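Handout, page 2. Input:
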Amino acid sequence: MSVLLLILSVIAGVFLGKYFGKKEKLAKNLLILSAGFLITICLNEVFPQVYVSEESTNLGIFVILGVLLQMILEALTKGFEHGHFHHHNENNILPMALMVGLFIHAFIEGIPLANEKETLSPYLLGILVHNIPISFILGAFLFNRNESKVPSYPSLLIIALFASASPLGMLLGNYFNPDLQPYFLAIVGGIFLHISSVIIFESNKNHNIDWTKIGLVILGVMLALTMHLFHSHSHIHHH
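Output:
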């Protein structure tokens, strides 16, 4: 079920990007909404799981490692994860570097899913919501860079690799000791924190208050908090 949802979230995002990819405002708004959702999931779900573990005193280092890792990956992806794509600049992004960067990013996010007990855990929902705008931008980049209606082989390969990255990470996660779960969650928490904070706190051109942006962040936060409430009730019920 998790694997299917992960793949579908990428396909849905790419599909939207193919047909609405020239609407950069829509892509930005999806990213901002997902950032509000993601940072709430990170602070309400991921970090509590990390810091409730016995090794919690040393796990802050792994959160920082996640932040640094994402900074390195963005040297490959040129900030695709937070909407830095420009049609006139596309030649600056090497498809191979983009593919490698996105694959590693999604692969690492998939590893902790191996030890998630719930089918629709808040962590999984965070990845799904995060996947859609990234896939939207990926679809827009791959399909709108040329006028051909038929997708090229490299484009399909990049999409297939990105869609399979998290499921492959989840598969690998089954071979790790479950005691390592807090460490992987800490790294992914750092990745989530970096991406969402960059999207939310990027300066506006004139440093004016962007009420649309604030509204979308609040909406994302409220959606995540709603999921959190349902998750908390089910968690209490099991105990």
